[in-house]
Amino acid sequence: MDHQKTAAGVLQGVGGEENVQSLVHCATRLRFVIKDDAKVDKAAVKATPGVIATAEAGGQYQVVIGNDVPEVYAEIGKISSLTGNGPSAASSAAKEAPKGNPLNRFISMISAIFTPLLWALAGTGLLKAFLAAAVTFGWIDTTTTTYTVLNALSDAFIYFLPLALAITSAKYFGAQQFTSLALAGALVYPSIVALNGSPDLTFLGIPFTMVSYVSSVIPIIIIVWLQSHMERFLYAKLHSSIRRFATPMVIVLTLVPLTFLVIGPISNLISGGLAGGIGWLFEVAPWLGGAVMGGMWQVFVIFGLHWGFIPLFVVEMQDTGLILMLAPVFAAVLAQASAVAGVWVRTRNKNLKSLAAPATLSGFLAGVTEPAIYGVNLPLKRPFAFGVVGGVIGGALLAAGGVASNAFVLASALALPALFGTGSTLLLILGLAAAILIPFLLTVLVGFKDPAEDAVVAAEGNDVEVRSPLDGTVVPLSETPDAVFAEGGLGQGVAIVPRSGAVYAPFDAVVVAAFPTGHAVGLRHADGAELLIHVGIDTVKLGGKHFTLKTETGQHVKAGDLLVEFDLEAIKAAGYDLTTPVVVTNSDLYPEVGSPASGPIAHGDPLFFAQAVESIVPEK
User: Is 381 exposed, middle or buried, given 0-12, 13-18 or 19+ CB atoms closer than 10 A?
Assistant: First the structure.
């Protein structure tokens, strides 16, 4: 099959892109929601090479392709604005990555991949911080099953971070998500994790060194990037009868051993060399070793190179009862936490502020800096750099004073007692003060490029399900007898011809606009999607007659709450069309709707998904 010709032929046959309300695909079929059936040349579609059959069901015009449907779907995405998502097409995020220097491109990639994970990281990190505080103050016993459960709840997401990154990386690079999950699952499989540090490991007779991939970031991103290229190659070379199962089999069989044999050992070699070099610096010039450790520790964490220091920490603890190299890590962690605290104080962006707040607390209290780094400091660049500066100065002072940790702990404010009683007390105080105050003051005073005040964080993972606010019949928005709505001037959505006189909340929301005339209501979902429900066309001219408003601006409502009652027959008798547009108005953040319903519908039934973009986007 020539996928390009099949895609072009089918799209032309259905009346072109302008005649398609939406397009999805299943295992064998392209599923079109058509605007005007009269414009579909059904004979031409059936005659298109590669088309097996056509069918009409469930409000969809279905074109049966067979095993090659993902490739044809992807090709349609290339020649239209109907987005392709097959293995032969790179994702829009990867295509639209900024050109710039390699550092900017790397930061942009990391930010895009981490954006959907930020709130889960922030929430579980904050839970971990509270749990650490409870242990420190003796509120909970670490030997109890309660602690075991709470520790698992707070630690699992970061522990299995490669699994989450597999999903977002697959989206970014245009790879198959479940194959990516299979790759990530192998890296953190219990029996594989147990091999870490074991001697004399071999695979097919080839010796290798196993390193820990728990909580790692870079290895899975590299693997999924390789996967995306392998998939495109294999899908082009393998026959359609076997490519569905043969491609993931070959990829998993190739890339997982490659990681264990090459990527892991290279990472281990680099981190071991860094650890040895910095250990030597601590012997020759402690202040310089502390500066490097304090400034670069978070960079090592980003690239997964920090694991090479763990053996040195353990050996030093066994030999001397102290860990000199661990003290500057406190400076590094507290410096990044302090930088994100500066963002929290300075930014006027409400959503950025709401992300910086839990990131600050989890960074300081539990030493969990992932939400701070990936969600705030690294994307904003300057705060991350200010954190590095604070880590350098604080780490140098701590090391110069001979400050060491008397226990193997995770660096955080709650673990600071591990540093007490070792080395110079004055330099301990000065080092910690420098690590905390310098990044905070630089971030607050020098500042950073603050996103627009009304910017919000939106991600593909934050798509919002909108349920029907009315009983009635769903029609395409283009059939609305009002050009502004019909052409999408106020946003994308659908229209409903009501059969009863009540409007219900389609999701949990805040009422941002309850028009006194009762003819329209504006709602905002917690994830940022803003929805306008406009009962009828030009009904504002009724001045509230025949409408009864049941809510008010600023009120929090639950899905299914009654918002408006109206006299359907009286409004019709007054000569008004009751076609009701339901549209997402902040289209810069939610530019498309997916899986729109059609035909008869009851309130509370799924209507469509408001599909979000994948970055912090200023509102227009």
Answer: middle
| Residue at 280 is within a domain | no
What does the H/E/C string look like for 580-607? EEEEECCCCCCCEEECCCCEEECCCCEE
Task: Assess whether 431 and 306 both reside in one domain.
Answer: yes
First to last CA, the chain: 44
CA distance 162 to 220: 6
Whole-model pTM? 0.51
Q: Report CA torsion sign: 362, 363, 365, 367.
A: positive
Same domain, yes or no: 585 and 495: yes
Active site positions, annotated: 26, 534
E strand or H helix at 530? strand 530-534
> Cα 110 to the chain's mean position, in Å?
10
Number of domains in the chain: 4
Residue 516 class from Cβ within 10 Å (0-12 exposed, 13-18 middle, 19+ buried)?
A: exposed
Question: How far, in Å, CA of 552 to CA of 544, rounded?
Answer: 14
Instruction: Please state whether beta strands 530-534 and 592-594 pair in parallel, antiparallel, or not at all (unpaired).
Output: unpaired
CA angle 457, 459, 462 (to 5 degrees): 100
Domain final residue pick, 71, 86, 101? 86
Cα–Cα dist 595/24, whole Å: 8
Is 74 part of a structural domain of the chain? yes
Q: Which of 273, 294, 311 is the last residue of a domain?
A: 273
Which residue would you say has higher pLDDT here, 503 or 71?
Answer: 503
Structure tokens given for 586: 């902040």
| Domain presence at residue 279 | no
Non-local CB neighbours of 315 within 8 Å, separated by 6+ positions: none
How many helices (H) and strands (E) would you count in the chain? 23, 22
- Between residues 454 and 590, which one has the greater pLDDT? 590
What letter does residue 312 receive in the DSSP assignment? H
Residue 466 three-state SS: strand
327 and 422 within one domain: yes
Residue that wins the pLDDT comparison between 496 and 217: 496
Q: Domain range spanning residue 412?
A: 90-159+285-451
pLDDT tier, 100 (very low <50, low <70, confident <90, very high otherwise) = low
Residue 304, exposed/middle/buried by CB under 10 A (0-12, 13-18, 19+)? buried
Helix ranges restricted to H, 90-189? 92-95, 102-114, 118-136, 145-159, 161-173, 177-187
Measured between alpha carbons, how far is residue 360 from residues 13, 107, 238, 257, 595 in Å?
A: 56, 21, 50, 38, 38
Contact residues for 385 (Cβ-Cβ < 8 A; gap 6+): none
Q: Is the pLDDT of residue 385 over 80?
A: yes
Q: Hey, what are 316's tokens?
A: 């030093």
Alpha-helical segments (H) within 38-86:
42-47, 69-79
Percent helix, strand and coil across the chain, each rounded to 5? Answer: 55, 15, 30
**Are 376 and 492 part of one and the same domain?**
no
* CB 503, CB 495: distance < 8 Å: no
pLDDT at site 18:
87
Residue 16 tokens read as 């072109």
Region of 584 (left: φ > 0; alpha: ψ -120 to 50; beta: rest) is: beta
